[in-house]
Amino acid sequence: MLSQALESGHRIGGHIVTLFLFTKSDVFTVLIPIMLDPEEDQKNKPYRPLPAGRITAQNAADVRWLLVPVCLIFSAMYSIKALACSACIEALSIWYNKFGGDKTGLSKNLLTAIAYTNFELGAMAVIGSSIDNIGACAVAFSSVVFATILHAQDFKDEEGDRLTGRPTLVILFPTFARMSMMIGIPLWSLYLSRLWKIDLVCSLAFVAYGTIVGARFMVYRTASAHKQSCKLYSLWFTLVHLLPGYWRFFYST
Q1: Maximum alpha-carbon separation in the chain
Q2: DSSP 100
Q3: Which of 10, 66, 209, 244 is deepest in the core (most CB within 10 A)?
Q4: Cα 122 to the chain's mean position, in Å?
């Protein structure tokens, strides 16, 4: 009995790990948890279940569609707002994956930014938080920031994107893409520091960190460097989400 229980537990644990590996690279940026082309994953994310051989493409597709009603049911249990956000994310995911939404840099960034906005609104609905003016401003600006420099992630995926013929900004306009990171991240750091009334020392530190992160995309151009730059960018984007909390702590009445 004990051995059977241990074996069952091992199998369940293996399935949980498989599900997690589909979205491992999306933890920090909270992107749409999608199932990409296996050829691309072999280059960009070889640890994912399909290229790693943990699951077949058909079984992965079955699990993907099985999770849709499960997600919608759980969302409906929280609130109508959570259900609406989940339904919108699912619609955007289908558009992105089935109708060519990922085929151009503009549509990819736009669809992902809209989905990200729904992720944030959905999370607020789940925790039962009402959205005041500050909350709406925070969601709006984090979404705009996300849309304008989302292609930070495309640098580390360039090899796989070229393999599958996906025309990202990094591939089509490499110089512009790098310049946008080098200029965009520091400018956003400065603007957001002013917007949320961050003190001088913290503002200087935040802008300095953003400048370093942005410069890395311009200076370091190897695949390993791009992966590290994306991690540092993810940390920077996490800090962006903490700035409204700073304002609430020091200035909210």
Answers
A1: 64
A2: S
A3: 244
A4: 15
Rg of the chain over CA atoms, in angstroms?
Answer: 20
Distance from the Cα of residue 102 to its chain's centroid: 14
Instruction: Give the pTM.
Output: 0.73
CB 237 within 8 Å of CB 28: yes
DSSP structure class, residue 153? G
Give 156-165 pLDDT, tens digit per residue: 888 888 887 8
3-class SS letters over 171-203: HHCHHHHHHHHHHHHHHHHHHHHHHCCCCHHHH
User: Which contiguous run of DSSP H or E holds residue 205?
Assistant: helix 200-219
The DSSP output letter for 155 is T
CA 32 to chain centre: 7
d(CA 216, CA 229): 6
Q: Which tokens sit at 188?
A: 């956003």
Which two three-digit tokens encode residue 49? Answer: 């279940």
For residues 165 and 172, is the Cβ–Cβ distance under 8 A? no
For 240, the enclosing helix (H) or strand (E) is: helix 223-251
Query: Is the Cβ–Cβ distance between 121 and 87 less than 8 Å?
Result: no
